[in-house]
Amino acid sequence: MTDDTQATIQVLPTSITGLFNEPVLYTESDFISGGMTRRQLVETACRIKVLLEDEGRNHRPVCLWTEDRGFFMAAILAALCGGPELVIPHTLSEQVVDEACRSKDTHLILSDNSRPAPEGVRLEVPDISKTRVKAGRSLKLERDLDRPFLWLYSGGSSDRPSLWSKTPLNLLGEAFFLSDHFHITPQDLFLASVPPQHIYGLLFSVLLPFVSRAGVVNDTPYFPGEIVTKADNARATVFIGSPMHYKALAGRPFQLDTVRLAFSSGGFLEEAHSLAFSANTGAPVEEVYGSTETGGIASRSRWHGEDAWKPFPVVEWKTRDERLLVKSPFISPELAKDSEGYFMTGDRVGVCNDGRTFELYGRADRVVKVGGNRVDLGAVEEKLKTHTGVKDVYVFQVAVQAGRENGIAALVVYDGTLKCLKNTMRETLSPFEIPRHIRKVSAIPSTGTGKRDREAALRMVVDQKVCRSDFP
User: Fold this and answer.
1) What are 324-351's pLDDT values in tens digits?
2) In sequence order, what E strands does 16-99 have?
3) Residue 441 in contact with residue 460, Cβ under 8 Å?
4) Among 457, 370, 363, which Cα is nearest to 408's?
5) What is the pLDDT of residues 36-82, one digit of tens each?
6) Which residue ranges form the domains of the chain, and what is each CATH number?
7) How many Å is the Cα radius of gyration of the chain?
8) Are 244 and 446 contacting, i.e. CB atoms less than 8 angstroms apart?
């Protein structure tokens, strides 16, 4: 670790503790563009804390059920300043919220709107205007920076979502680092097409604007026309999207003069889609690689000619048998580490010739044994994408013979017939790489954060009522 890196890491706790003493925290500048000032944010946080003080004393987490970024940040501030810990459901459905509550023995949901609560759980919708707060009351950080105070789910693209704890240093420390690294200023205004329930949306559309003294648009536009219109009307300077948003935007002409920087995370972003956005805006798209449990690890910008991934200065890394190992202040505390403090990720990488960057080869859990043969599902996808007419493809593992062996299934967005595609597959794939089940679809199912939805894909190929084309 260099002296500069060590100095950057050491200053993060000071930045976090100093945040609560800054006068700007209590000003009339907008946090939510046109919707909530920073002073109102602090008042809301104080009122939430007062309302939930009993829950905090009982040391029982509260489930946060909201997509409102102002309410989200206020609840986090309340938790940091002595309020109860928070558990964040990955999707705002009653079933998922119920699962989140049960995972942490939670009996209270904090929400900005009345909703049907799961059985046995109380839903609290604070009437902010009626919650009494002492005059002049301000925020004071009361959390240990290295102890968990919030739980987030991973995206669940390869299996069921997993719950990970995050400390104040994990989250606010990373937000401060990102602000400095990407030169975010108080003049910036963020627009995000990803929700705040996952680590990417939480960091980039809630915490990053907050620590940078910037503003954020509260809406979460999803469709291309909505994104362009909202960004143009709001005069957003920073766009937060996922690969599927950039893919959709690449299919239409548009112009955004105010956007100066964009981010993408949650999956592989096609170079053509990244460059198309930059051509329409003049803004680089910074791809961010990481996970819920590790935090951010590296970034790259195709607009700047970068193909390899550049690890963040605060991240130490090494490889072992093609597996990437990382050490940083953003890693969830419960992760198992080696004697030097490194956590082994689930990703395979190759070190570039410069020794300072790396290439991603795909998930280690995407290399499976089929009939005793090693198959890289990512490599099969890349081969299929070279076929004429194949616009998108998702290859994933399925169990066969009552779960005793592995098989391969594929969803393809394809212009031609399955018979034609099968013939082409036989010419380019080895016998054990050919999918056992294949289905043509209009689009690959994805989660709210843009990752491939494996559970939805699996249902599509095993449902006997829909077309399932098996190879003989």
Assistant:
1) 999 999 999 999 999 999 999 989 899 9
2) 30-32, 36-37, 62-65, 86-87
3) yes
4) 370
5) 999 889 889 988 888 887 665 567 899 999 999 999 999 999 999 98
6) 3-351 (3.40.50.12780), 371-470 (3.30.300.30)
7) 23
8) yes
